[in-house]
């Protein structure tokens, strides 16, 4: 069951990532990426994995120590819970990057590979995005809408 939940955490995030990468201009992608609720199913998986090892989890986070963290991740549910948490937070970061890129007029052809990098190695993806975002200082101007006469 733990292996299934471990895999499920990624499969729950994958559709949102796929939309942001392959359908970035679709209006439903915009709506979905704007919602923080995309992580709720992943966090449900996190809870299912974390609750059975809650004492070890609490010890690892309330008194951070490398050995305690190793003990937590040596447990299948502990490692699975950490993985689900990473998947959820990476998805939120990816959604923020997607929305910022749209606001700043950064091309989906640039963002697609950058979002893939973020899925795989989010700290690298975020750093590259922050540099790109700094280079595009101003948000793109919205297209003016004609006023009715």
Please characterize this protein's 3D structure.
By secondary structure, this protein is an all-alpha fold. It has helices at residues 2-22, 27-33, 40-50, 54-62, 66-74, 76-104, 108-120, 122-135. Helix 7 (108-120) runs antiparallel to helix 8 (122-135). It is elongated, with a radius of gyration of 18 Å. It starts with a helix and ends in a 14-residue tail after the last helix.
* N to C succession of SSEs: HHHHHHHH
Largest sheet: none
Judged by helices, strands and strand pairing, the structural class is mainly alpha
Strand percent estimate: under 5%
Global outline: elongated
Distance between the termini: 64 Å
What is the CA-based Rg, rounded? 18 Å
Helix content: over 70%
Could you give the count of β-strands?
0
Topology:
Layout: H1 2-22, H2 27-33, H3 40-50, H4 54-62, H5 66-74, H6 76-104, H7 108-120, H8 122-135
